[in-house]
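User: I'm designing a mutation panel for Integron integrase IntIA and want to avoid disrupting the core. Could you give me a predicted structure to guide residue selection? Please restate the sequence first so the numbering is unambiguous.

Assistant: Good idea. Sequence first, for numbering, then the predicted structure tokens:
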Amino acid sequence: MRKPSSPFLASIYEQMLVLRYAMSTIEAYLYWIRFYIRYHGLVHPAELAEAEVGQFLTFLADERHVSAKTQAQALNALVFLYKRVLDRPFALQLAFRPSQRAPKLPSVLTPREVAALLAALPVHLQLPAQLLYGSGLRLMEAMRLRVQDVDVQYLSLMIWNGKGGKHRRVTLASELLPALQQQVAQVRHYYQADLQNPEYAGVWLPDALARKYPAAPHEFGWHYLFAASHLSRDPYSGKLRRHHLDASVLQKAVRQAARQLQLGKVVSCHTLRHSFATHLLARGADIRTVQEQLGHSDVRTTQIYTHVLQQGANGVRSPLSDLRLDLPE
């Protein structure tokens, strides 16, 4: 994302960069801070307090009908603004109306629809999409895979610092091994060329890892599996690096393929993860196993997929099925 033109928002952007916030988090927080300022008629946040914050959060619930998750994200952005930027942390409790909008049931594709969607994608984007479905990955988990995270011997992928900072091992379809070998060969080609560039600073690593393993940024195994096709400047340090594939490229391709196929469903990259979970449960997989594969902290989050299975709500047979009705076919 580009640095905001507003000096105030630009200073927040710079502060979040220093604190190593993810770019997606920076973009989301700036969106909510900007929305909050506009909602209050462009009054500077320093002149507003908890009452105005509560009013804004209630507006999101009552007028915008946002989900509880979205409202929580807006709250987190404002907590950052007042605590980190304005040095005025909130009181222990804010007065606002929590969002009551129930979470949506996940959009799920049939196995045939998944196969058609994957085939309709550009060839160079099929493998990351296949991992979203075949291993139940979140989009950024796939984008951030390193070459050494692929365990061919045990047919698994290592996911580090997933949602909530958790690590997990997930299944890997053996059918993807040839494509993965080709992908690794492509990354090695980039790697060998990059090493010839005197400006190349190696791949980005979290600060703690970079300090512990100072040679790691130039080691092949740490490089991204789905590497970008060009070098770029690290926005945090200004160093020349090869980042991972831009997630928006895959997002746009999946949406375009879904429109092309006229599936009649809302389809995104996350739909492939939803479909992975639902299809595993439909095949009889234990819900605790699916929970571990998805990296859910609470099994209740995983249970939502039981509501979209073909046999209906928790396998209950409809009494209508016992009636002999002359219904049109």
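For picking mutation sites, this is relevant: The domain at 7-85 is CATH 1.10.150.130 (DNA polymerase; domain 1). Residues 68-85 form the longest helix (18 residues).
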